[in-house]
Every structure is written in structure tokens, then in C-alpha cells.
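In the previous lecture we treated proteins in isolation. Real proteins rarely work alone, and many bind small molecules. This record shows how such a complex is specified: first the sequence, then the SMILES for pyridoxal-5'-phosphate.
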Amino acid sequence: MTHVLHRQIGQTYPVAANSQGVTIRDTAGREYIDASSGAAVSCLGHSHPDVLAAMRAQLDGLAYAHTSFFTTQVAEELADDLVAHAPEGIGHVFFVSGGSEAIEAALKLARQYFVERGEPQRRYIIARRQSYHGITLGALAVGGRDWQRKQFGPLLIETYHVSPAYEYRGRRADETQQAYGERLAWELANKIEELGGDSVIAFVAETVVGATLAAVPAVPGYFKRIREICDRHGILLILDEVMCGMGRTGTLHACEQEGVSPDLMAIAKGLGGGYAPIGALLMQDKIFDTVAEGSGAFLHSHTFMGHPLACAAALAVQRVIRRDKLLTNVQTQGAYLLRRLNERFGNHPFVGDVRGRGLLQGVELVADRDTKEPFDSRLKLHARVKREAMARGLMVYPMGGTVDGARGDHVLLAPPFIVDAPLLDTVVERLGEAIDAATGKTKNPEHDARSEVR
Ligand SMILES: Cc1ncc(COP(=O)(O)O)c(C=O)c1O
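The predicted 3D structure, ligand included, written as C-alpha cells:
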């Protein structure tokens, strides 16, 4: 009997015992290829000797010093490193311990910025449906997954949601990519007008939508138009790169490929590569300067922010990525993975779309390719795919609710940056078998209420 409150109560999880490179082993001796880096976390794979050495060295010197008393060399170095490679205008970093904390900090810093600028009437946040920004109350309020928000509704701050940039289902057949992007931009502009331009704090979006839609980049030009609209009304653009950032899409920041620089940007997951819990909020100088010249303090902190061990891990991860030119590998292997997925699933009767950028790729499952009709959600097809993949020694990240929060299934792939082509061949082969096995049984569904995955 377990005393841990696991994600799915009553489910028996394999016990992870050790890991190396792209492989995790359980206590029963089974091996799993980590083709999702957990949840797009383990960007360097597992047990990287250089990261472990940096962490040991940090522990030998200093494990912890509270940030109200001290700064540390390693936190300063990591901040320098992040700023040196950040989008234009970003000059400071606020450290936290994960993605939700980074989003909470973004929301509060955005609000404090306007209060200190003498615009306390700004109170609304606009975000997008079918998005995920974290699980704490502020992040949940901003996120667009109704099924996760619904029961906590009375506790959530007031937020407004517009359509996601979801080309596969959102773009009309008679519409160009550009016209679709323009229509979405107008939707945001109209929402801002409706609320009153000077009462909106920020627009929040994942640069590439991760787990909710499975690796969906925006159509070309979308973010440039969004940036213009935000600027016109003095509204902050908060980009959530918790999943898609830190090299995952082939550039250090996903927004580099969109040609925009955000006012605030949340990063986590790949920042520390899973070696330690760490996230960060990157901010434009104008925001830092306003608070620095105003009250002089951001009214927000955590006991473990800037933890030296986490900073040492993140600094080592970022140095290895640069030293080993791993972003080039992300681009090369990402293109290879996309090609292999298209070869395997391009004519698959139950795969409607293959998409992604770099080593963040998604496969959307449909019951009918022509109508894009999803499978009956009671089948929990995503959970079946996960079970079938695990049975074949493969970790991928399937999820349901792709279409509207209730219907639809997809599989997200996010392998470590160190993968090569033969490994990706094995991943695609096993995933193909898992999807075939999971979809082959759908005529006689056995509804397993405990099989849902997150
Ligand atoms: C885009 C995005 N934002 C925020 C979060 C929340 O991060 P965390 O789980 O570290 O709190 C996630 C986690 O999956 C995410 O994918």
C-alpha cells in the first residue's frame, strides 16, 4: 500500500530505479526510451556527467542560503548567462522553482508594473482557450483548459480567453494562413476594445502550444500582429515558454522564430533539464526599471527561489547545450523526426495531423481523417496509447481534450536533444505499433475510468 497521493489514485506505477542517456530503468528491470523527456524536461537526457559534477561541486561549497540574506555566485552567473542570450531588451531574471511559479510571478509583476506606473485601473488578463499555463490558482485562471478550471471557478481571478492559433482545426478551407492569423489578431483586438484598452494588463500565450494541443506553432505573422496590438494599447505580452523554450524548438527561445520579443517570458522545464526544480521569469528593462525606481521591491518571493543547487544544475545544462552545439542537433533531428512521423502516419487511417517544431512534435488522432471527427472521448484513447507505448518500452506524452477540452486525442513527442536518427527510428516504430494496437481495439471499447493520464 502506498502512502503517496499519486496522480491517479489506485493506479500502479512502475518504480523508476535508474537512468542513463535516453533510457529509464524500473526496479523490475524493464527499460523505457524517454521519447518525451518526461514532460519535455530532460533535454540532456539522464545522468549527464557534467551536470552531476557541477551539482556535486556546488553541494560541496554551499547547498542553501536564503535570498533575503545573500545572493550567490551561481545565481548571479546563471542570470548573466540567461540575459546574455535573451531576446532583445531583457535585462533581469527572477528565479523560481517551476513553470506555474514563473507564470504566477509574471502575472503579479505585470500588475505591479502598472500600479507603479500610475495605471491601477488595469486589471484584466486575456489568454487563449486550449492552453496550459500551470496549476496554481493564477496560472489556472489564465489557462484555457475548462476541465481543469471548472470546479475551482469561484477561486479564480477574472480572465478572458480568445481562440488559439490552431491551424489544423481553426483555419477555414478558403482562408490563407495569413488571413487566418489576421482573423485571430482581430479577435484579440476586439476583446481588448470590449474590455477597454486601458483596463487590460496583459495577453498571455504559449509561443508553441505544448501539452494541450501537441506542438502547435502559430501561423506565420500571427505573433507580430499580436505584438503590434499589445503595443497599441500599452498591454504587456507575456510568452509562456515553459515547455517550448530553452532550445526545444531548435532556437534557445521559441519567440526568436516569430521575430518578437516579449515583455515577460516564463521558462522552466528544460532550463534545469530535470536535474533540479527551477524556473525563471525574464523581464524587459522597462518593467525592472519601473519597479526599481518606484517601490524598489517586487512584492513576491519564495523560500527556495534561486536555490544554489538548482542554479548550478541549470547553468551546467545551458553550458553543455552550447558547448556540444545541441541546438543544431535539435534542428537536424527534429526535421528527421518530422519526416519519419509523416512517413509512418501520413496515410494512417486514424492520424489526422503531424506537426511540430524542432524536437517538439505532435500527432493528432482522429476517428475519420476526412471529417476530422475525433474518437469518442469515453474510449480514453490517449490513455490506451500511453499504456501500449509503455508496454513496448516507450515513453511518449499523450493527452485528451485536444479539440475543445473534452474531445480529441493526441500524442506529444519531445525527446532529449542528444538523440540520433537510429534512436528516432526505434521511437517511431514503437509509437506506430502502440497507436495501431490502441486504435485497433476501438470497436469494442472497455471503458477504464482509472486510465486517464495527465
Ligand atoms: C506551457 C506550460 N506552462 C506552464 C506549465 C506549468 O509548469 P509546472 O508544471 O512546472 O508548474 C507547464 C507544465 O506542463 C507548461 O507546459
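Summary for your notes: Residues 39, 98-100, 103, 132-134, 206, 210-211, 240, 242-243, 268 surround pyridoxal-5'-phosphate (CB under 6 Å). Residues 441-454 have pLDDT under 50 and may be disordered.
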